[in-house]
Amino acid sequence: MLPREKSTTKSSKSATNDVAVQYVKGVGPRLGAIFESRGIGTVRDLLTFFPRAYEDRTRLKSVAELEAGVRASTAVRVLSSRKIGTRMGRSMLEARCTDDSGTLMLKWFHAPRGLEQRLIPGTPIVVTGSPKAYLGKMEIIHPEISWNKTSDVVSKEEDLNVGRVVPIYTELEGIPSRTFRKVLWEAIHKYGPTLPNDLPPQMLGKYDLPSAFEAAKEIHFPKPETDIQSLVDFKTLSHARFIYEEFFKFEYFVMQQKLGVEKQSAPAMGLEGGTKASRDLTEMLPFKLTGDQARSIAEILEDIAKPHPMNRLVQGDVGSGKTVVAFLTAAAALAEGFQATLMAPTEILAEQHYKNAIRLFGGKLRVELLTGKTTESERNRLLPRLLAGEPLLLIGTHALLEDPVQFANLGIVMIDEQHRFGVEQRRTLRGKRKSGVPHSLLLTATPIPRTLALTAYGDLSTTTIRELPPGRTPVRTEVVSGNQRGRAYEKIRSELKEGHQAYFIYPLVQDSEAEGFTSLKSAISEAEALGREVFPDYKVGLLHGQMRPDEKTDIMERFKRGELHVLVSTTVVEVGVDVPNATIMVIENAERFGLSQLHQLRGRVGRGAAQSYCFLFTHPRVGEETAHRLSVLEKTNDGFEIAEADLEIRGPGEFLGTRQSGALPFRIADLVRDKQWLLRAREDVLELLKTDPQVALPENSAFRSFLQREGREQSERLKTS
Ligand code: ADP
Ligand code: MG
After folding, report:
1. Whose CA is closest to atom 10 on ligand 1?
2. Which ligand is nearest to the CA of 344?
3. Average per-residue pLDDT for the chain
4. Which ligand is nearest to the CA of 471?
5. How many C-beta atoms surround the C-beta of residue 336 within 10 A?
6. Long-range contacts of 271-275 (CB under 8 A, 24+ apart)
7. How many CB atoms lie within 10 A of CB 664?
8. Which tens digits make up the pLDDT trace of 106-120?
9. Separation of 321 CA from ligand 1 center, angstroms?
10. Measuring CA to CA, which of 92, 246, 323, 720 is 20 to 30 A from 555?
């Protein structure tokens, strides 16, 4: 980080922008406190609180032209107003208005104080809102009102709300957009000209971007000649200026972090010894590695032979054989005298990995298991071995994260299905090496779209396994509306008859107890109904997250052995479970899942040579948009394509987990919409780091001031991995 300069050099420019927001005319202590609680503490925060959308109010409609459900503005005069009681003992305010083309009713269930007194018959007003047809008349509930310029209560700010394209702000605790427009108008005129320009001016020149002041003014109060569509799409140069600025700052910190990591030291392992060990084990495998697997392993071994911590993500579609890559990596570390650990998100998966390691390598790979099920005495025997530095691969669940688990000589941590873990958990596992940083290898079947990989995971190298092991047939997928499931059942019965097995997955929403409970109940009752009515000749088993661990394992084992033909389950089977004889995957309420998650679930089948099928059952009433979204899965089996589609539809949370997406602090930039700007900013930051790594050149002084002002705080906040 840069040294802090003495505060005397702080320019007065930034000082005016540090003024507390409550001193802006029209804000005051009460509103100021609300702003403050939502992160808008200073005038600068206020000026960079950007609208979420725009509304075209350049043309007023007549009352006769109003259409139900289409937001519009119309100029009317008040005919009468009254307060009426409602059944609930509350009162409602009603105003009848007209413009001679028709009558419009306005209604407020919670009328703002003083409103009734202002609705004097004859008063001209402009109202905006979404009209509804009610008893043959149009009405607007809780309209936005502008007191027309011709009235006595003229004030210039009324011009801000009609007759132009107006910005719409995210409502904060009931503060309406019109309040924002008013205080922003004050703020931009008084303080706008001193809004700091943090970006190096040559970057602005490069793209012809306006100054911060000009851009902010245009975003909040667009000029009449500005193209409306560009505004609505956030595509003006003024928008671009702040979008680019956010990306530029963000990328700067991400790169700094990456450079920082590269400077840390980590256990350097001999390349030759490691390569030999992993090659020996490769020869024990009952199959030949795919080209992509072999290449991944070579890349990893080269990385861990360097004295800096590897931070690598292996992304490969479900079934592409990532586990073996992890095993062979561990083998290399062990051969070099280091310890390794592999963390999986569920007990089922951890146990499966453990058994596979033993099945594949016998005693040639020393492996132990630690989960919530491990007994006290087993733990007591295991933990000292870790502390003694015995070279072994410890496979486990979250149980690995507990305090007493400490390694003397941890060389590499590996995390399977990494997106199922939070930043903190990954950090904790990395902290298990007594001193210094171990290498880390993350595995995922939910590919991270490139835009995200560049941002949130800027310090990560990636390896991609695209090639599937030979002999796999792509799964056939069909979206089936709920009331047409009979046909699908036929197909499933014929597969069962041929000795194959089927999964039925029900959604379980973990973050809402009430909802989770109902879904869970439906999985249980469905299991019964399926067994009784649909597949009476077959054995149906039930698996869900709230069963005891030994019950879960038992059911899974019976399904693997073929004693159960149909497995009804919640998403606990999402990750990693491997039963090659299963050829049917049915997902109920598919509309409730993200595409990437559905793709993961689908990956449970198609693991053998036989043709497999995936049926996405949807609620009979899902909209066209949802059906269209799901149809992506009918068209492609490519996890990367699906991930990109998911990012566009559902945003980054899906890939990062909630905590991490919180680490993307963009106020105006949007990873999907503004991808171009992200790539430009990234390139420009690389250029800056090359030409002026200390940010010392005079032309970069503006950015330097920014770093001195906020650098430390921001780089802390952006720590993402
Ligand atoms: P994922 O990448 O989804 O974690 P797994 O590691 O579970 O995939 O591998 C899926 C299955 O493919 C396992 O049964 C594994 O033993 C098998 N497998 C892995 N690599 C190969 C290969 N090169 N050839 C054939 N089968 C393989
Ligand atoms: Mg896996």
Report:
1. 319
2. 2
3. 85
4. 1
5. 21
6. 271/301, 271/302, 271/305, 273/332, 273/335, 273/336, 274/301, 274/304, 274/305, 274/331, 274/332, 274/333, 274/335, 274/336, 275/301, 275/332
7. 19
8. 999 888 788 888 899
9. 3
10. 323
Distance 287 CA to ligand 1 centre (A): 9
What type of residue is 261? V
DSSP code at position 111: P
Is residue 226 domain-shared with residue 334, that is, in the same domain? Answer: no
* Nearest listed ligand to the Cα of residue 415: 2
Pick the last residue of a domain from 636, 661, 686.
Answer: 636
User: What is the sign of the dihedral through the CA atoms of 658, 664, 669 and 675?
Assistant: negative
Residue 407 Cα to ligand 2 middle (Å): 25
Last residue of a domain, one of 636, 664, 685: 636
**Residue 455 pLDDT:** 67
Span from the CA of 665 to the centroid of ligand 2 (angstroms):
31
Within 6 A (CB) of ligand 1 lie 287-290, 293, 316, 318-324, 445, 469, 576, 578
Kindly state whether residues 371 and 336 are assigned to the same domain: yes
Do residues 285 and 233 share a domain?
no
Cα(389) to centroid(ligand 2), Å: 27
Give the residue whose CA is nearest to atom 25 of ligand 1: 469
CATH assignment of the domain containing 399: 3.40.50.300
- Nearest-atom number in ligand 1 for the CA of 324 is 6
In a domain, 427, yes or no: yes
State the residue range of the domain holding 185: 1-56+181-190
Residues 413 and 543 in one domain: no
What distance in Å separates the CA atoms of residue 78 and residue 97, rounded to the nearest whole number?
Answer: 4
Name which of 185, 131, 140 is nearest 158 in CA terms.
185
pLDDT band for position 721 (cuts 50, 70, 90): very low
Q: What is the pLDDT of residue 718?
A: 60
In this structure, the residue with its CA closest to atom 13 of ligand 1 is 321
